[in-house]
Write a structure and sequence with these properties.
alpha/beta, Rossmann fold, 6-stranded mixed beta sheet, 9 helices
């Protein structure tokens, strides 16, 4: 649940009353992206001395060993590290999908360790948007129905759900694909549906886990352009990636190794995915 001192517009008005908007780089996109940007200046994420211990039979696995960091509103952070480094465990903790064995985690001013299971579910639904490598779309449902899902779980009225789901799909350039099922969409279009789904409840934090992992290089630039456009509006994004060229689009890079945070530094000149996509979108397939 959000801290009372953190002023957030309601999910119902976030799409209709933007404080700031910019044009999306997505093809055939004329509607500006709208996000709920928290500009209060307080950290969105405060992790202090996080440890995570897994018991696998008689073996103890220390997935995290005293990780501490803060992420402030409007940051675009990439998380890297080899397999087993602890980055996935860290993402599970900040996504409220798991609890630390030791240490504290605060999300928009709320002590997560004090929340009940029901409260954690509400936090995941209302404060965090998730984008995954595998898209995680319902195969038999349309793009519109997939985008509606978080609002159904949140108990939002059907007419409001439909209005916001349609607008979210329009924001990512899929206004002509609302009735298509995932099998009728390209990989890039499926990921855009997933991004639209992550935005409908106006999250304070977007967690993207390898969002370009299943995409070709051209489509990866398109997805990163969308994420950069959202971030430029003030949406806080934490992205896990194995790819250094994808991390280069973010403004801050952190790295994990053996359960510890070993690198945390700003990116002096992030790559401009919006500009790159503007060029790519004008090229014919034969030119690529």
């Amino acid at each position: 649940m959000p801290n009372e001192n953190v002023k957030r517009s309601t999910a119902a008005t976030a799409f209709t009353e933007p404080q700031k908007s910019i044009s999306s780089p997505v093809p055939n996109q004329s509607t500006p992206l709208v996000v709920n940007a928290d500009r209060q200046g307080k950290p969105v994420i405060v992790a202090h001395n996080l440890h995570k211990l897994y018991q696998l039979g008689k073996t103890q696995v220390r997935a995290l060993r005293g990780v501490s960091l803060e992420v402030f509103p409007g940051e675009f952070v990439s998380v890297r590290g080899p397999s087993g480094s602890g980055k996935s465990t860290f993402m599970n903790l900040i996504g409220c999908l798991d609890r630390p064995t030791q240490g504290t985690y605060m999300l928009v001013g709320k002590q997560v360790s004090e929340l009940s299971i029901q409260e954690l579910a509400r936090v995941r639904n209302r404060l965090i948007g998730f984008v995954f490598q595998g898209f995680n779309l319902l195969s038999r449902a349309s793009a519109l129905s997939n985008v509606e899902l978080p609002m159904i779980y949140g108990g939002i009225a059907k007419d409001v759900r439909l209005q916001r789901a349609r607008q979210a799909l329009k924001l990512v350039g899929l206004e002509t694909r609302m009735d298509h099922k995932p099998s009728e969409l390209s990989g890039g279009q499926q990921q855009r549906v997933a991004i639209a789904r992550s935005l409908v409840n106006s999250p304070s934090l977007l967690l993207a886990d390898e969002p370009t992992g299943n995409l070709d290089s051209r489509t990866s630039v398109e997805v990163m352009a969308i994420l950069q456009a959202l971030n430029q509006q003030g949406l806080t994004i934490v992205l896990v990636t194995h790819e250094p060229d994808i991390a280069a689009y973010t403004s801050r890079q952190i790295s994990f190794r053996d359960g510890r945070l070993v690198r945390d530094e700003p990116v002096a000149q992030p790559r401009d995915a919006i500009a790159e996509w503007a060029v790519l979108s004008q090229q014919k397939p034969d030119d690529l």
